Amino acid sequence: MTLDPPASPVAASAVPQPAPVDLSDRLVAAVTSVEGVASMHAGMFGEVATYLPGRKVIGVQIRPDVTNVDVVLHWGVSIPATAERVRGVVQKLVDTPVRVTVQDVTEPGVTTPG
Q1: Of 89, 23, 30, 6, residue with least CA distance to 57
Q2: What is the mean pLDDT of residues 73-93?
Q3: What is the CATH architecture assignment of 22-106?
């Protein structure tokens, strides 16, 4: 009787796996598609993020009672109107109230890291 050698756990884990698309990823895609949004923002102390295995998604914090979204907008856009559009696209994807915070503004055409 011939036995196959056991599969190497290192070989199986060495193959890179694509990151799963989480709700937080879909929220970031929806928010950054809103005209006037330059980028997501992690909050003053980096607290606005969703922590996933091996990575974090900045600018979105999904809690049972509220979804927080922090953004940087382009200079010259209407802040209240853009924040309301952001709230609208997020509200379509979550069942909680949505809190939008505009953390900063930047020059048009500039995308800033969170």
Answers
A1: 23
A2: 97
A3: 2-Layer Sandwich (3.30)
